[in-house]
Design goal:
single chain; alpha+beta; 3 strands
């Protein structure tokens, strides 16, 4: 009788294991089909976007798996800086040397600021929508044994230019407590 019960138990366990394996295989097939459908939709979206923008091809990225490829990834630090000679900050773009503080402020500094705006920071659109900020909460706390104030804010962007999209920005602002003058802050976008 014990032998029969053990045989039945092992048979049930084997059937259960086979069913689980079959379910895993089916889940894997379903997952692959889902991933393929997302890839197909993404590829189609890229093609449509490229067509709208008039882009026929994009530059191939670095190949990290083949060091002999023409577009091989660069891990050699001696090749890392494509601009080994930075421009002299005291020479105007026309080649003339800055001779005075006045020339610096009126001529050279604006050239550098323009370069940073164009190449590093990016341009602010001429028509930037207004943001209305609301304070959601204020909390007194401590950071590194210093008293701080943590404010949670929500910004509602004026979407009158495209009302079908609602844009809200969440911002956490942390400033030193007991400060009665303006302090610098760093704002970062994080998702």
């Amino acid at each position: 009788m014990k032998q029969l019960l053990l045989t039945i138990g092992f048979s049930i366990a084997a059937i259960h294991a086979i069913a689980q394996q079959s379910n895993r295989e089916q889940d894997s097939i379903t997952r692959r089909r889902f991933q393929d459908s997302i890839k197909n939709v993404t590829d189609q979206d890229y093609k449509e976007m490229f067509a709208q923008l008039g882009i026929s091809s994009i530059r191939q990225g670095a190949n990290g798996s083949n060091p002999a490829a023409p577009n091989a990834a660069n891990y050699d630090e001696s090749k890392a800086n494509p601009y080994p000679l930075l421009p002299d900050p005291l020479v105007l773009k026309n080649g003339k040397k800055v001779q005075s503080a006045k020339e610096w402020w009126q001529l050279r500094r604006p050239e550098i600021v323009e370069d940073f705006d164009r190449e590093v920071y990016g341009r602010t659109p001429k028509k930037t929508p207004k943001v209305k900020w609301k304070v959601l909460s204020v909390e007194n706390s401590q950071e590194n044994n210093l008293p701080i104030i943590i404010k949670k804010l929500r910004g509602e962007v004026d979407n009158s230019g495209y009302s079908s999209v609602k844009v809200e920005l969440d911002l956490t602002l942390t400033v030193p407590a007991n400060q009665n003058k303006p302090v610098p802050v760093v704002m970062e976008l994080a998702f």
